[in-house]
Amino acid sequence: MPQDDTVVSAQDLPAETLGAGVVKRTTRLADGRELIYFDDPDTALGPDRAVDARDLAPRPETATMRRDVLTGDWVSVAAARQNRAFLPPAHLDPLAPQTPTNPSEIPSLYDVAVFENKSPSFGPALAIATGDAPSGIDAPRDLDDLTAPGLGRTRTSVGRCEVVCFSPEHSGSFGSLSATRARTVIEAWADRTAALSALPGIEQVFPFENRGEAIGVTLPHPHGQIYAYPYITPRTTSLLASIDREGPDLFSRILEFERAGERVILEGEHWTAFVPFAARWPIEIHLVPHRHVADFAEATDAERDELAPLYLRLLRGVDALYDSPTPYIAAWHQAPVHRGRDTARLHLQLTSPRRAVDKLKFLAGSEAAMGAWIGDVPPETAAAKLRDAVASIPEETL
């Protein structure tokens, strides 16, 4: 374990100032994984960061993905994920700052921290099909290679999976952050989106937060993840097909249609949140920027500034529906790195299976097997309840 007097000086850990005064500092963990600190603009932290002096096992081999010939989807088989932490006690929280008795993943106290996942679904190797590729790496050649026919097709799951720690606290979620801290996380999302999009072999970057044991969360620590995929995901492939069918201005027309209707929950100068016309889940919210923005990296400072308190109000409104926290998946859909960037718009799709205070929607035969959804709650009814819940959140608490 690192001792308290083992630190990296400020000059050894260069600082880069990002939007909103957020400061970025980059270092490495003991096994070579990248660790990035994002300091709040009003941080109480000093510039130094402790060295990760753990004795760690070698990183796992890069996973392999297999093509499902019936759907064309690629399935990554990542056996190392079986070893990830499962609901550890607070004193062994792997996302808390390291202590003499907790050899966690982050050596120093932090505001926001991002690091490469120890047991990734994609990566850790990143390579394209060139002579520079490490031995044993059979990366996708290009997008055409990924759609080629044939049984038994495999490729190495090149890519990257990162953990985004929203706070050093043991429990919470994005909705429990301050507006300043939320803004720091948004800046981290934008920074990492740009960095991951520039890596070889990456086709799409996906920031998300899973919240609640009902969703399958194994750590109560407030955190999210970012996946950098070596392909365009099935959901986005379907979206691009819809844009081809409906027209390149699809998102503009959706926004105009929803803002004129009764399903709007919350509006700002730059963003609107609504329950979509054909919502699948009992709680389903889309949050869309008014301007075309392909991903977080393209969002302006003004758009990021407004998003922080607006998103917090939305999440706290979701929790105000019931007397206990609501499980959800907060999925930030971004345009692919190389396709559809002038038509596919950054947007949030927040979904929850909670259909009543003590009831969850489970995907059974029709939805899970056939993809034919049956909605339990009319979208207009859900929107009215969410609108009232969001309105109950006091402005001064954000």
Walk me through the structure.
The chain is α+β, with helices and mostly antiparallel strands. It folds into 2 domains: 7-230, HIT-like (HIT family, subunit A, 2-Layer Sandwich); 235-397, HIT-like (HIT family, subunit A), CATH 3.30.428. It contains 7 helices and 19 strands. A 12-stranded antiparallel sheet has the order 2-3-4-8-10-12-11-16-17-15-14-13, with helices on both faces. Strands 7-6-9 form a 3-stranded antiparallel sheet, with no helix packed on it. A two-stranded antiparallel sheet has the order 1-5. It is globular and about 55 Å long. Pfam families: GalP_UDP_tr_C, GalP_UDP_transf. GO terms for molecular function: UDP-glucose:hexose-1-phosphate uridylyltransferase activity; zinc ion binding. It catalyses: alpha-D-galactose 1-phosphate + UDP-alpha-D-glucose = alpha-D-glucose 1-phosphate + UDP-alpha-D-galactose.
